[in-house]
């Protein structure tokens, strides 16, 4: 797990810890983390071919690990995950791991 993962987890924990202050209308109500949203971007398509192919090859297993790690981190083994895709108007090479291809299938199979 890298720096961005730890920063994201820290921000989520801070948000959850400060709900009464940041959202006073929720004070006294039971709240819960009920999902995780991931937006797949287009930046990886702007890399050179060699780097881009490596990213495509590693994307699916990395995404499955991210889902597993977040579910474990927050002790929510069935945390739903929603994936959005940005920049899909750009023609993708045929061997990609975009959300519209293998990673979508992989994310559906992400273990609980």
Q: What's the number of extended β-strand segments?
A: 2
Shape from CA axes? elongated
Structural class: mainly alpha
The strands making up the biggest β-sheet line up spatially as: 1-2
Mean pLDDT: 77
**Share of helix, binned:** 40-55%
Low-confidence stretches: 93-107
Rg value: 17 Å
Number of helices: 4
SSE string, helix = H, strand = E?
HHEHEH
Whole-Å distance between the termini?
19 Å
For the largest beta-sheet, the strand count, sense and barrel status come to: 2 strands, parallel
Description:
The protein has a two-stranded parallel sheet. α3 runs parallel beside α4 (102-108). It has helices at 3-17, 19-22, 49-73, 102-108; strands at 36-40, 81-85. The chain has a domain at 51-112. The protein is elongated, with a radius of gyration of 17 Å. By secondary structure, the protein is mainly α. The two termini are 19 Å apart.
Spell out the blueprint of helices and strands.
Blueprint: H1 3-17, H2 19-22, E1 36-40, H3 49-73, E2 81-85, H4 102-108
Parallel strand pairs: 1-2
Helix pairs in contact: 3-4
List keywords for this structure.
112 residues, 4 helices, 2 strands, two-stranded parallel sheet
Compose a concise summary of this entry.
This protein is mainly α and 112 residues long.
């Amino acid at each position: 797990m890298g720096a961005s993962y730890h920063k994201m987890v820290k921000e989520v924990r801070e948000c959850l810890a400060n709900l009464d202050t940041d959202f006073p209308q929720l004070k006294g109500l039971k709240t819960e983390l009920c999902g995780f949203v991931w937006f797949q971007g287009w930046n990886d398509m702007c890399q050179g071919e060699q780097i881009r192919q490596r990213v495509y090859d590693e994307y699916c297993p990395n995404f499955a690990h991210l889902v597993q790690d977040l579910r474990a981190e927050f002790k929510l083994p069935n945390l739903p995950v929603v994936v959005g895709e940005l920049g899909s108007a750009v023609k993708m090479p045929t061997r990609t791991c975009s959300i519209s291809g293998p990673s979508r299938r992989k994310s559906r199979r992400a273990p609980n």
